[in-house]
Every structure is written in C-alpha cells, then in structure tokens.
Design a protein that fits this description.
The complex is a heterodimer of chains A (302) and B (174). Chain A has helices at 15-44, 50-87, 89-116, 118-127, 132-135; strands spanning 136-145, 154-157, 170-172, 177-184, 189-193, 201-205, 211-216, 224-227, 240-243, 260-268, 277-282, 291-297. Chain A has 302 residues and is of the alpha+beta class. Among the domains of chain A are: 49-116, no CATH class; 201-282, Rod shape-determining protein MreC, domain 2 (Thrombin, subunit H), CATH 2.40.10. The model of chain A is unreliable at 119-133 (pLDDT under 50). With 174 residues, chain B is mainly alpha-helical. Chain B is built from five helices and no strands. The chains are: A alpha+beta (302), B mainly alpha (174). Chains A and B meet through helix 1 and helix 2 of A and helix 1, helix 2, helix 3, helix 4 and helix 5 of B.
C-alpha cells in the first residue's frame, strides 16, 4: 500500500476569492489613476480651467463647515492662549524689560544718526516717493486655513476675485509683509508666504541702505535670508529690512516700497563666499495669522 | 459593508477632514501637526478592509485638497494607498490584535509624511526633507496619543465584522 503511488488531487481554485482579489486590485488601481490624472491636470493649469472652477465651487460649498468648525474650536483656542500666556508671563516680563532697555538705546542711537545724516534722509525721500499709501487700497480678510505642515507655505483667505483681489497682490499683516496672492477663486484666494522657497522679495536695509533679495532660508524653520549682499557692504544685526519697491517703470516690482519684511538676526561671512550670509527673522508671525490685508492697486496692472 | 455603514463612514471621514483642515492644521507641537483624518482612516480601514480603506482615503483626500485649495488629487493619492495598505493589513495579519491600530498609525504616519515628501519632490514643489525628518517622531507620538480614543469611536460606530466575513489569506486543506 505504501509503495503504491498516490494520485494527488489537482488543487481546485477558489473562484470567489480570486474574483474578490481582482476587484480589490482593480478598485485601487482605478483610484490611483484618477488621483494621478487630477494631480496632472491641477499641476498643469493651477489657476484656470474647468477643474480649477470645480475646486473653487467645492471650496465655497465647504466654507460654512470650515467656519462652523473654527467657531466651535475658538473658545478652546482662547483658553489655551490664556493659559499659555499665564505660564510665560514672568519670562515675558523679563524679556520685555530687557527689550525696553534696548529700544531706549536704539532710539537714542537713531536720533543721533538722524541728526548726523540729514542728507541721506533727504535722498531717500527724493528717490522714493511716498506712493505706497496712495497707490493701493487695503482689503482686510479673514484667514481660513493656515500652513498645515512643512510642505505648505500658503494661506487660504476668505475673499477672492469677487472682492477685487487679483493674482500678485501683496498681502500684509499688522506687523509686516506676509506674502503675495498666488491663486484666486471667486470667494477665496491662496496667499503664498514669503517663507515659500520659490519666493523672492527685493529688500532694503533701512539703516545702511544696502539692497538685496529676501528668500526663504534653505535651512527651513520659517527664517529668511538676504541674498546678494557683497562682503564689503555693511549689515548689522537688528537692522530692519523693508520692501525696496519699483525703481524702473519698465520692470515694476510687485511689492510697494516700505513694507517691513523683518529684522536681521545674524550676519556672517566666509573666506570663500562672495556674499554675506544674512539671516532675517520675519516681522509677521507667519505661523498664526487670523486676518491679513490685501493691498489692491488703485490702478489696474497691465 | 452595509449602506448604514457607508453613510456612517462617509460622515465620519467628512467631519474628520473638515476638523483637520480648519482646526488641527493650526496646531503645531514641536514642528508636527496631529492628523486626526489619518488616524480615523487607519481605524476605518482596519475594521472595513482594503477596498473601503482605499475608497475612503481617496474621497477624504479629495475633500482635503478641495477645502485647502491645494493641488487636487495629491492628498487623495497618498491617502488612497495608505487606506488600501492598512486595509490589507487588517484583513490578514492585523485582525483581532490589540496593537494593530497603534502599529498601523505609527507606520502610516511615517510613510504618509515620506510619501508626501516624494510626491512634492517629483512635482518640483517645496520638499524640505530635513523639516519632515525632524517632525516625524513628534508627529508619530501625537497621532499615537489620538489613536486610542479615535479608534474606540470608530469601533463603536462601525462594529467589527465577524471572523468568517473577513478575507482568509491561508486556506487549510484536507
């Protein structure tokens, strides 16, 4: 019996299991293909097209839910902010005392400089007409969503083309420059922050009149760098940087002159580098903005 | 999955997506953002399998992309794959195991962040690898803290299927 050959029965397939595995794979492949198609269309035409309109309509439909969620969370945020401020009140008071003393010194120093360099001040006024308040009107807008991680350097604001907001309009907060409008929908818009790696703002050091370009720091962390400043130029820690504005009508700058960008937090130079390494702390708190102002030109751009 | 289950799951993921975009996106702890949507999706996929996980991930991601006016389909792509993969884990190895939700959330949080990093890099957008790596551990810890209560909510709303209903990966013959 043992020596006789045993006929092993042919394994029977499980048609229902094979079918369900096939359906499962087909579903996931189909979903991935649809997602990739959407990414491709959205990436190739981010500011126009049917999909853009559809996304705008969807965003408008979701707005009431987002507003409701924000309102529900607001008391908890307020409570957290209150407790957080209580815990840090003592250290905050010490910091403010120190800052107060430094500011007194700064005021004295600034007055001394202003008395010493009146020609420089007159030259500045001559070169830069005070067109900033005259050429623009501000639209104050609530921020709907803030940057949600290290990938995003954008804000969503609660007004769009319906309120007269256009692409490339500068955006400010009470503290300084926030960014620029990069995408507009009828009832909302996307603001790309100055901390975005693709951003560039022509800047001027108010104290030394050195100019350069402010960009996001390659190290990340929300800090900025002032690029293109040659080593022989002088930039001090604590100097204020403002937007440089338009100097040639042929090449108008997107930002008007005089908006505070931030303060110089460190200045360094290496033997091999041609330019100074200037780090800048943004004036606006880009991580927690509740409302911003969009500067809309009174004269439409060409 | 019954119609009632589908409605409950859709409502759950809708609320999670809105809460994520409106509230939790502003909560930064040590550079990381807690992700309630991801934890809800993992819980849902573990209980309802790979197809439901993939479909849920796709529509939840689409909702996030629409609400945040981001690149449409990007979050949907990564969440679809996350939901599918965790669903398969739930159907096979992870069934009935107490540590499955925690293990899934920890692994998916890391893969989700790295997946987004890769997709952003491929699209030529900002892909700060250093910032992502630095925020990875805090993000995993935050999501693990959220896992126990959120998984309990999902498990209460969507009762787990009986063992026979789940896909058996190994067939005992004879």
């Amino acid at each position: 019996m043992l020596a006789s050959s045993v006929q092993r029965s042919k394994p029977t397939p499980y048609p229902s299991k094979a079918r369900s595995a096939l359906i499962r794979r087909a579903v996931v492949v189909a979903l991935v293909l649809v997602a990739l198609t959407l990414v491709t269309i959205s990436f190739r035409s981010p500011t126009s097209g049917a999909l853009h309109g559809l996304q705008g309509a969807g965003s408008t439909a979701l707005r009431p839910f987002q507003v409701a969620a924000t309102r529900v969370a607001q008391p908890f945020r307020d409570a957290y902010d209150y407790l957080s401020s209580l815990s840090s009140a003592k250290s905050e008071a010490a910091r403010l005392k120190k800052q107060n003393a430094e500011l007194r010194k700064d005021i004295l120093s600034a007055e001394a400089r202003a008395a010493k360099y009146p020609q420089l001040v007159r030259l500045m006024h001559f070169e830069q007409e005070p067109s900033f308040p005259q050429g623009y009107r501000a639209i104050n807008v609530a921020v709907i969503s803030s940057p949600g991680g290290p990938f995003t350097h954008t804000l969503e604001i609660a007004r769009g083309s319906g309120a007269g907001i256009r692409r490339n309009d500068p955006v400010v907060s009470g503290d300084g420059l926030v960014g620029i409008v990069s995408n507009v929908f009828p009832d909302s818009a996307v603001v790309t922050l100055i901390s975005d790696p693709s951003g560039y703002v022509s800047a001027r050091d108010l104290r030394t009149q050195v100019t350069g370009g402010v960009q996001a720091s390659p190290a990340g962390g929300g800090t900025l760098v002032l690029n293109g400043v040659q080593k022989q130029k002088v930039v001090h820690v604590g100097d204020w940087l403002v937007t440089n504005g338009t100097h040639s009508k042929q090449y108008p700058d997107l930002y008007p002159y005089g908006i505070p960008i931030g303060r110089v937090s460190s200045v360094g130079a290496t033997d091999t580098a041609v330019f100074l390494q200037v780090q800048v702390q943004p004036a606006a708190n880009l991580g927690s903005l509740d409302s911003v102002g969009v500067l809309v030109p009174k004269k439409p751009r060409r | 999955m019954t119609l009632g289950d589908g409605v409950k799951a859709a409502a759950l993921l809708f609320v999670a997506a809105i809460v994520q975009v409106s509230i939790f996106s502003q909560v930064h702890v040590f550079g990381a953002v807690p992700d309630v949507l991801l934890v809800f999706l993992v819980s849902f996929a573990l209980l309802r399998g790979s197809v439901a996980g993939a479909v849920g991930g796709f529509f939840a991601g689409l909702l996030v992309d629409t609400a945040s006016l981001g690149t449409l389909g990007l979050t949907a792509l990564v969440l679809t794959l996350s939901g599918y993969w965790i669903g398969r884990y739930g159907e096979t190895t992870g069934r009935d195991r107490g540590h499955a939700p925690f293990l899934s959330v920890a692994v998916v949080t890391a893969l989700y962040q790295l997946g987004l990093l890769v997709v952003h890099f491929v699209l030529g957008e900002s892909a700060p690898a250093g910032a992502v790596v630095r925020s990875l551990v805090p993000a995993i810890v935050l999501n693990l803290i959220l896992t126990a209560p959120l998984y309990a909510i999902v498990r209460r709303l969507l009762r787990p299927h009986e063992r026979e209903e789940l896909t058996a990966e190994v067939q005992l013959l004879g």
